[in-house]
């Protein structure tokens, strides 16, 4: 039996024109963008389709934009008969997984992630924080580097454990720059600055988590209809209290993406479908375990590729 996971990307995957081909060809897809506009009270769709990229990259725009595109794509897969056995998302992407699992409505999710982005920006305004991907260094060695830099007065910490050989650090702009240099001096192959507007998944984000907790308390949440694997502990989020705790804690905690993927594989998942622009998560999954199948759905051709491949799968009708 083929077991499928829907996975949803986080910030950094946004691109001007995201989802454009779908909304031009299907009224139900365009409706997702219109629903997002209505929920937020401004024309998010115009920013998604026309830019400018600098505005789309701002966290309070990128988060609802990625959620909208990801859920729209997942709904197209569901309508075509492709149903996930479980779901997960990278950071912001976790909200897309929760919408598909029936935990909260699309409208509530769009509103919450927009506020999440605003809270994050208030905690550390754009330009004051940074993130970077460190390639070719083990966790323990990189953790030691970040501890030393932080102790010297420039906060930085491990933010995402993405796959073997790729770990992301987050903190103040100066902390990330110094840790990146120190990591390369300690043997890292590369240090790549990420196109994000804040130091996500670092202690600098803790003030935003408190505001997010208050917002989530006013949102109606339901138990998941399919397993959702959380970022913080890489375990199934089984009930509403666990989900609320997860969403608050993950704002300032490291995303355990490698462990999350391994958990899904341990549950029998052998097909991962990335719902959203880009191929970042699919690439990470392949680096974690090359034996599983990965697909990215971001336009009509990639959707057709999944539907064609599905003809060979043994799945529940």
From TrEMBL:
Where do the Malonyl-CoA:ACP transacylase (MAT) domain residues begin and end? Answer: 7-298
InterPro entries given in the database record: Ac_transferase_dom_sf (IPR001227), Acyl_transferase_dom (IPR014043), Acyl_Trfase/lysoPLipase (IPR016035), Mal-CoA-ACP_Trans/PKS_FabD (IPR050858), Malonyl_CoA-ACP_transAc (IPR024925), Malonyl_CoA-ACP_transAc_FabD (IPR004410), Malonyl_transacylase_ACP-bd (IPR016036)
Cite the NCBIfam families for this sequence.
Answer: fabD
Designated name of the protein: Malonyl CoA-acyl carrier protein transacylase
EC number assigned by the record: 2.3.1.39
Q: Which residues form a coiled coil?
A: none
Arranged from A to Z, the UniProt key words for this protein are: Acyltransferase, Transferase
Keyword Acyltransferase (UniProt): yes
Native source organism of the sequence: Lysinibacillus xylanilyticus
Its family remark reads: Belongs to the fabD family.
Out of the domains of life, which is the source?
Bacteria
For this UniProt entry, the molecular function terms from Gene Ontology, in alphabetical order, are: [acyl-carrier-protein] S-malonyltransferase activity
Q: Which reaction does it catalyse?
A: holo-[ACP] + malonyl-CoA = malonyl-[ACP] + CoA
